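User: Could you go from structure to sequence for me? I need the amino acid at each position, not a summary. Structure tokens:
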């Protein structure tokens, strides 16, 4: 890091993984940094900028100094269709290495773009899955931080498992073991806590090596979390990495007005006002919200079981089904011709496509969230004091479930034991399990009331973290200082 006395206006360059779950917090981070006096450039491609254009327009209207660099996606050079500009559009496992290659090829045009920018860039914040950001920072001779989209708990758990070489002695990926180095006994399996960055997957060795090098040589780690949520694990992560960790979250709280919450991540597939008016008509804490994020793909038999469980519960709900999932004829037929939507009319809303999740979770009528445990969704739920029914699918999601259920005790598990990947979903969670799970979330008295009390109290604490003088704001100011030194 440069240590000269000269101070200049900080200009942060944020390089997110081209995935909604990483682009969304990147935009939140940009808004926060710009609000505190920094110029910010968010690096995207045309298709990804189009997705967040409503957010970009709102930021522009607020006169915040945030720029969106739309670099051409190097599809032909990486032998990948131009339509695969976001990870949720890559439906073939064989194309994932090409997708990561395409992102790395943005390095040269990005350096050329940044050399013409004024004020000049003073700090790079690159996603953990964009390790080539270290080369950009090196060429520009500026400091670089890594943004991890994972929880600090997940990062500590993965690091401790790797350092203890636990996987070398395991032959069964589903055999339970105690995660070493935690303050309480928590079990995992290799399937639930996979090696970082596909490091054991053929074809990903170079990317894994670069990712580890990028973390070893970075000037700090930025997380979508806060001391009020994960103080012990943030400290532990600093100890095991030797890096300063800056918890500046929960990042969803950067969106303070209704308009920003409504368009966070993408243009909603439903009129936001219509959705909120429907929620306005419902009693407080009476609605279950069901959504599995942007990347997960639920197979038709499982979708039908989820719907049947929601119907049998008799509870009010909002259920998000992706457009790609609706392409299955049996799903569309079951929703309409077989009468599901008609039977639940009045108490159930099906959103087909992208939902205004931030606005929905912030509404007082929502009393529970059935979630895939992506860390963005977890922080949104906690920020709004909403308990969770956990339904992890892959990657860090099982570790996040452990945070929700075993550490924070603000959720209940649906009982998923093995990763669920596209085209390989074999174990179906039955409608009776779904019904029991959502009823458990809204149960009166006993454990249900205690759980709601805990998550409400936790929500109040994390909201204070992003207020003036809060831990996240103080960390944000430390980032501004890093970007101010040339």
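Assistant: Here is the amino acid at each position, in order:
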């Amino acid at each position: 890091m440069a240590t000269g006395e000269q101070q200049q206006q900080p200009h942060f360059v944020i390089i997110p993984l081209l995935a909604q779950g990483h682009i969304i917090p990147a935009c939140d981070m940009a808004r926060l940094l710009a609000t505190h006096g920094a110029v910010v450039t968010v690096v995207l491609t045309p298709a990804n900028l189009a997705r967040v254009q409503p957010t970009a327009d709102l930021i522009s209207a607020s006169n915040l100094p945030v720029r969106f660099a739309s670099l051409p996606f190097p599809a032909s050079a990486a032998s990948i269709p131009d339509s695969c500009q976001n990870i949720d559009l890559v439906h073939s496992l064989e194309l994932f290495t090409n997708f990561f290659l395409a992102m790395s090829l943005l390095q040269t045009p990005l350096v050329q773009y940044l050399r013409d920018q004024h004020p000049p860039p003073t700090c790079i914040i690159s996603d953990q899955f964009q390790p080539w950001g270290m080369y950009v920072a090196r060429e520009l001779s500026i400091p670089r931080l890594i943004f991890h989209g994972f929880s600090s708990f997940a990062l500590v758990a993965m690091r401790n498992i790797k350092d203890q070489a636990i996987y070398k002695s395991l032959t069964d990926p589903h055999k339970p073991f105690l995660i070493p180095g935690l303050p309480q006994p928590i079990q995992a399996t290799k399937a639930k806590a996979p090696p970082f960055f596909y490091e054991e997957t053929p074809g990903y060795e170079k990317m894994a090596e670069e990712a580890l090098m990028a973390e070893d040589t970075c000037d700090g780690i930025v997380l979508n979390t806060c001391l009020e949520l994960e103080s012990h694990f943030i400290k532990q992560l600093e100890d095991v990495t030797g890096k300063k960790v800056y918890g500046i979250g929960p990042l969803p709280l950067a969106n303070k007005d209704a308009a920003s919450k409504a368009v966070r991540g993408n243009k909603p597939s439903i009129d936001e006002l219509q959705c909120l008016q429907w929620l306005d008509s419902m009693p407080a804490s009476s609605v279950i919200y069901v959504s599995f994020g942007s990347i997960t793909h639920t197979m038709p038999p499982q979708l039908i079981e989820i719907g049947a469980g929601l119907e049998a519960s008799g509870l009010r709900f909002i259920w998000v089904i992706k457009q790609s999932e609706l392409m299955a004829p049996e799903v569309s037929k079951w929703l309409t011709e077989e009468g599901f939507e008609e039977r639940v009319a009045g108490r159930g809303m099906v959103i087909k496509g992208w939902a205004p999740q931030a606005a929905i979770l912030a509404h007082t009528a929502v009393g529970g969230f059935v979630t895939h445990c992506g860390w963005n969704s977890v922080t949104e739920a906690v920020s709004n004091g909403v308990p969770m029914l956990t339904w992890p699918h892959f990657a860090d999601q099982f570790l996040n479930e452990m945070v929700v259920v075993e550490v924070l005790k603000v959720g209940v598990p649906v009982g998923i034991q093995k990763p669920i990947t596209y085209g390989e979903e074999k174990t179906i969670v039955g409608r009776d399990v779904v019904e029991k799970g959502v009823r458990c979330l809204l149960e009166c008295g006993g454990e249900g009331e205690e759980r709601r009390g805990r998550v409400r109290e936790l929500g109040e604490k994390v909201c204070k973290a992003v207020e003036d003088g809060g831990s996240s704001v103080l960390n944000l100011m430390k980032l501004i200082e890093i970007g101010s030194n040339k």
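One structural detail worth keeping in mind: Confidence is low (pLDDT under 50) at residues 1-5.
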